[in-house]
């Protein structure tokens, strides 16, 4: 009877394993919907599997556009904690997403071309133009009043063409929401330039003129990361084709060029930039709101440095977030570098693809709806404040807000300084403990090795000199010899006991 029951149990167990295995295979092949929002706020969707990599989505979008110069672009998503990320093309999409499907992402410019003149195709320039429009609207691209008026006029000319008094009423510019804060004075200047200076320009020419003006500005390509410096002052960190930049308010206070940056590293919420300028080593330290924000800042820096600094992608190496004694994050940029992208663009030989310009409504209500969608996908608060508004009423309002905040700042100053002091003390203690552990570990290796060399028959001059010192003879006679005899006695007793058994 037992012989008949055993095979049945084994067979039942085998069937259970087969069911579990089948279920896992089904879960791997589960279809997941992914929606990508494009630069003109239209959307495309596709179906992916659990093991589908990020490169599939990039190729899918580029095929949709018929885009060849695709290395400037990337896909961005926001996790449930409102932290932004760039999708890694080399990793599975499902392993990067912290939310459940269906997934929603955004197609954006990741690396801004250093010289728009070297972009080969009109389609690529148009997509970059859409990105610059977004940067202007969200307050990321800062400029003076005159430049702001010119950029706004280029956008109006590209969207509606030449000014026509029969079609465009006196307040036609009010239907365009170009800047986050758009004063009447700025609108009047935009109308003046649009009427008198841009007549006859096609959409292609107007878009190109906007790119030429935008790429000459300090904040071109800057994706601001809000941080605090060592004094607790709010700063915005970013990366451009030139290097690492730091802004306080509307003023750029640091520009460290890529060749001068030795290392980018982070530890928790603390970000460090190690640079060598004028044969002097400088370390800039900043603090982010969360460790995830700090890691994102570090990865963006590593990717931008690799893209803009090196001549070939084969020169890019894997970098770590910390020093050699402690394990940290490892990352390597795997795409083409800027020089390779420009070389590949120069070799493109095909009929230029047709550019389908989207007709976006320009009413304020429709823009507010689009803005709400964009903010939900791209939380960029706080933004770098826009300097384009020069109305006296707005200046007065800003002054009133500053007066209202003075009392609150005074009340919080003592507690804030106390907290910052504790943070700096904790950071110092943490660094000191790491250094102490590293020194002890090194000592535990060096001392036994030196002792073995001294007690060996190796005849080397510096070992011979150490053996002749009174201190070593005292150590040898009083400590080493008794210890060696004690160890030998214990070993002999153990061997004798083992032999008798």
From TrEMBL:
InterPro entries: Band_41_domain (IPR019749), Ez/rad/moesin-like (IPR000798), FA (IPR014847), FERM/acyl-CoA-bd_prot_sf (IPR014352), FERM_2 (IPR035963), FERM_central (IPR019748), FERM_CS (IPR019747), FERM_domain (IPR000299). It is a single-pass membrane protein. Gene3D superfamilies: 1.20.80.10, Phosphatidylinositol 3-kinase Catalytic Subunit, Chain A, domain 1, Pleckstrin-homology domain (PH domain)/Phosphotyrosine-binding domain (PTB). Keywords: Membrane, Transmembrane, Transmembrane helix. The lineage of its organism: Eukaryota, Metazoa, Chordata, Craniata, Vertebrata. Residues 32-312 form the FERM domain. The chain crosses the membrane at residues 435-454. GO terms for cellular component: cytoskeleton; membrane. Residues 384-403 are annotated as: Disordered. It comes from Xenopus laevis (African clawed frog). One of its GO terms (biological process) is actomyosin structure organization. This is FERM domain-containing protein 3.
